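Quarterly update, task 2.4: 6-O-phosphono-alpha-D-glucopyranose-bound model.
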Amino acid sequence: MLEQTNARRVETTWGSRVRLDSSNAAPVAPRDVHTSSFVVVANRLPVQQSHSSGEDWRPSPGGLASALTSVLQSRNGLWIGWLGGTAAASAPTDYEGIRIKAVAISPEEYSDFYLGFSNATLWPLYHDAIRAPTFHRKWWRAYQDINRRYAVAAAEAVAPEGTVWIHDYQLQLVPDMLRRMRPDVRIGFFMHIPFPPSELFMQLPWRREIINGLLGADLIGFQVPHAASNFSRTARRLVGVTGTDSTIQSDGRTVRVGAFPITVDTTQIINMTRDPKIRERAREIRRDLGNPEVVLLGVDRLDYTKGIQQRLSALSEMYADGQLHGGTHVIVQVAVPSRESDAHYDQERHNLEQVVSALNGDYGLVGSPVIHYLHQNLPFDELLALYLAADIMLVTPFRDGMNLVAKEYVACRTDLTGRLVLSEFAGAAAELRGAFMVNPHDLDGIKEAIGSALRAGPEEAKARMQRMRRRVLRHDVADWAQSFLLALQRGTSA
Ligand code: G6P
């Protein structure tokens, strides 16, 4: 193992000190009175602070929180993560029947670890360097410190020979750190975002440390096979491990690598879409939009990887060309606020809002705008009503690990109507072959795909939706978690 710091001393979450020695693994005994044999470690907890200060809690958004919540409930598990703020708050210790342990992050760490290394170094680098990644040694030190804090929290909380499941790019050093402290524990890691090809990954000054960090796991899961092989090839090239794309020999251990495409809670979505209140809300939305012939919908976190501006530029040209008409074709764009203190995200919002206002200025009618823009975090039932109200769903990220919006849209179209325009660079594209596929960098290509979706007859649209639904309904998110954990238990890669 190269480029590792020896004999580091670290501060634990609770102020005690633990010796971390990379040359001589020093086991840490479980310290919590209430240890658990199943521990999830993710940057975010399933609950978060409503505001940056105060003690007002609300559920964290996203399907992952609900999926892991049910897995943890059935295993009496513990979730270690961050509450999303930097103000001191007495965190809840229990959420929906699962135990939670909050890791505190100071304002400086928020800036260096969260906004910095996680979201201005790794996030753009892992998304095809759509924005230039920034490399700062200070951010890297904060990333190591916070990863260590999570590793120590896990080492102290997991019962002897228990299982720890670590999630996502913010915590890639935790597997190896935890293994050194607790060699008795079974460790799984799942990467929710893409893993870049070696040509890009090699830019990272701390590339070996990241690969060695991940290799501390027994099983490393990715969204798609391509990401898994990017990782394995880079590991062989960079740190001299041997093996195949699915089995790596590292430090006398076998590390399994595989693809475990995440999905949505299909049963919950189908049940919710049967709710007459949600169906009525969908009809009301269409009425409020002026009963247009076609509703086109985008739902994205406001992120530069999502290709929102490019998509709206394509739509704007379609209004200009006369392929779309104000009053007949109406767009709804939900842009969920995200990472707002980062300059790239601020710029993205600014640019996006200019495109939105130009669209309405150029093609809107009095009382009938062509685009309805919501910069809001909507409740899930309102999102489902929007999915039901939309004739065409537009999901055109430049790069995306999976994209659950695409799967949610497909899951809720129980009457087999609706058309999906999908980027070939979203992980979901491998499964949703019935979508109208686009290269999101190709403006004419986006226009053509939207045009094809508009022109497709009901039989073609139904056949496409049926094909996608067969795929999406095959598994739900609980099956995804079970298949990963089963592979971790069995020592297999899928
Ligand atoms: C992506 C990442 C998650 C992250 C989420 C929201 O889905 O894979 O790890 O939690 O974005 O981003 P945020 O920075 O608000 O946690």
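Highlight for this quarter: Residues 1-25 have pLDDT under 50 and may be disordered.
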